[in-house]
Design a protein that fits this description.
Blueprint (H helix, E strand, L loop, with lengths): L1 H14 L1
Length: 16
């Protein structure tokens, strides 16, 4: 699920 981890990281960064 490494792909999911990257997507989550980007999502949080964008949300900030």
């Amino acid at each position: 699920h490494s792909h999911s981890a990257i997507g989550t990281k980007v999502s949080i960064s964008t949300s900030s």
